[in-house]
Write a structure and sequence with these properties.
With about 100 residues, this protein is an alpha+beta fold. The chain is built from two helices and three strands; from the N terminus they run αβββα. The model has no long low-confidence stretch (mean pLDDT about 80).
Length: about 100
């Protein structure tokens, strides 16, 4: 069974790499096909622009709203972090007690 599944998957991957032809007939209708163009139609080049993977990416323009709102400085001292940690421990203990009493 595994061999049949592997063979089917291998066959599908070869189909995924097939070339696509763009055919235009005399009326201007476009047909995309993986076989040769039918009689009376003309094969045309792929209109999609292919970009190289290592092509430089242009920088996005900076938003004009970026500097309007002043950013707040994050100032967390050790005492605040200690208090938050102790509060979380107390809440955890209360939760454990509620679970134990519910059983």
């Amino acid at each position: 069974m595994k061999l049949i599944l592997c063979a089917a998957l291998a066959a599908m991957t070869t189909m995924a790499g097939a070339a696509v032809n763009r055919c235009v007939d005399t009326d201007g209708r476009v047909l995309y096909t993986d076989s040769d163009c039918p009689d009376g139609s003309e094969a045309q080049a792929d209109p999609v622009e292919h970009i190289a993977a290592d092509a430089p990416v242009p920088a996005a323009p900076r938003s004009r709203w970026a500097d309007l709102a002043p950013r707040k400085a994050v100032n967390v001292d050790a005492a605040t972090l200690k208090t938050a940690y102790e509060t979380m421990q107390v809440q955890d203990e209360l939760h454990k007690q509620r679970l134990a009493s519910a059983r």
